[in-house]
Amino acid sequence: MRRHPAFSTALAAAAGIFMLTLLGGLFTPGYSHVSQFISELGASQAAHEYPVRLIGFLPAGVTLLAFCWFAHRALPKASLTSAALIALAGLLTLSPTSSLVGLSQRAVEVAVLGWVVACGWYIDARSRVAA
């Protein structure tokens, strides 16, 4: 059973970012998922700066860009979806000085990646009905 590329890239992006966050945090001494940004895992002078950048962030970014391309081609144009994501990100993002900034970032990641996977699933299901 062949899946739509939007669905495959959505799952790959979500899995990649999840693994980046989980493994990068696991192997970085003193890293807290609750109080730190994931960007700190690849920051200059971080314990595993280059592997996190090249094996984590780069493939995740490329996969998300691929998903965006496939989704853009497959979905009807709707500005409401974009506005909802921007509003959600604004509501869940805390000040960088907050002790819970990492927790709010995880919430934003879950919301956005959940939307990406749901969108990929929708495109896949829609393409199966049309076929």
From TrEMBL:
The chain crosses the membrane at residues 7-30, 50-71, 78-97, 103-123. Keywords: Membrane, Transmembrane, Transmembrane helix. The keyword Ion transport does not apply. The keyword Membrane applies. It holds the Pfam family DUF998. This is DUF998 domain-containing protein. It comes from Ideonella margarita.
